[in-house]
Design brief:
Blueprint (H helix, E strand, L loop, with lengths): L1 H21 L5 H25 L9 H23 L16 H12 L5 H24 L4 H9 L2 H14 L2 H4 L5 H13 L2 H12 L6 H28 L7 H8 L14 H28 L1
Length: 300
């Protein structure tokens, strides 16, 4: 019964998203609007709250640094495997690195671990966010630069929310506001604004899922992604235990490493066929992530 409480809402909302597409209950423009509300309004509220309430120390900087390094290694392995096994596509190596925490991770983490602080997941996410907005996007753009990456980051509500959350949390301002009750007001506002995040995101993902996925064509890309993520998860958990002294949340790491690559990837495709292949790979990996989420729900 507890398992159903965790996984049934996810599959139900995904199904509603598929139904909205099949019955034309929502248009593409409508779904894009839902995504914009989720990513630019609701999700920043989640991020601000998570980082504002996190516990900070000099050692805690090791967590995002570790994740940043891991993402760089994953991208290197992606290029190596694609070249070694002649996997076609300019964007194929990028499927090995980065995690779609914003559009999927936070929504699933709240459902799977409702009693655990979201700040533990946010701290792990910080390193991969920095990776995506720097190394990942610069290499994706080809002719991009650090200046362009910084400009993109400055235009992102998510980055602003993370920055404000860090400023409020790391400086101790949030804890200083606790006696006056102002912190509870902030919590009330962010909780209210972020409440529909999971539903909006999962509904949008369900709408975009296609029943005609090319599993055979995508098999090598899926195997590469799952294999690299699995190996690096094991290495990170060992590194955290024996070097960092178990600073990183195990549940946050498990949730992070089952996520698909960033959904922004198809935007950088040069030709329509490549965009279609990458989109199909992301849809396939999203379904794999949902299945792995159900497995985690069953065993944790």
């Amino acid at each position: 019964m507890i398992l159903l409480q965790k996984i049934l809402p996810v599959f139900l909302v995904l199904f509603l998203g598929v139904l909205c597409r099949k019955k034309n209950l929502l248009t593409r423009e409508g779904v894009n609007a839902l995504k914009k509300v989720a990513v630019d309004i609701a999700l920043p509220a989640v991020m601000f709250s998570a980082f504002a309430t996190a516990e900070y120390s000099v050692k805690s900087i090791c967590v995002p640094l570790t994740m940043f390094t891991v993402c760089c290694i994953a991208l290197f392995l992606g290029f190596f495997i694609c070249r070694r096994f002649s996997i076609p596509g300019r964007l194929s190596p990028f499927l090995a690195a980065g995690f779609e925490a914003g559009m999927l991770g936070y929504a699933l983490f709240v459902i799977l671990f409702p009693d655990e602080s979201l700040s533990s997941f946010a701290l792990v996410d910080l390193g991969q966010v920095l990776f995506v907005f720097t190394v990942y996007k610069i290499l994706l753009a080809g002719k991009g630069s650090l200046k362009t990456a910084v400009k993109d980051a400055c235009m992102s509500p998510t980055i602003w929310a993370i920055g404000l959350g860090l400023a409020v949390g790391a400086t101790g301002l949030y804890q200083a506001l606790v006696p006056s009750g102002i912190s509870k007001v902030l919590d009330s506002v962010t909780d209210f604004v972020s409440a529909p995040t999971s539903v909006l995101i999962l509904l949008s993902i369900g709408y975009d899922l296609s029943a005609k996925l090319q599993w055979r064509k995508m098999a090598s890309l899926i195997a590469m992604r799952v294999g690299i993520s699995g190996v690096l998860l094991g290495i990170v958990m060992l590194f955290d235990r024996f070097v960092l002294g178990s600073m990183m949340s195990t549940t946050a790491l498990l949730m992070m490493f089952v996520l698909p690559p960033p959904y922004v990837l198809p935007v950088f495709a040069d030709v329509e066929e490549e965009r279609s292949d990458v989109s199909s790979a992301l849809s396939s990996l999203t379904l794999v992530s949902i299945v792995l989420f159900a497995v985690l729900a069953a065993i944790l």
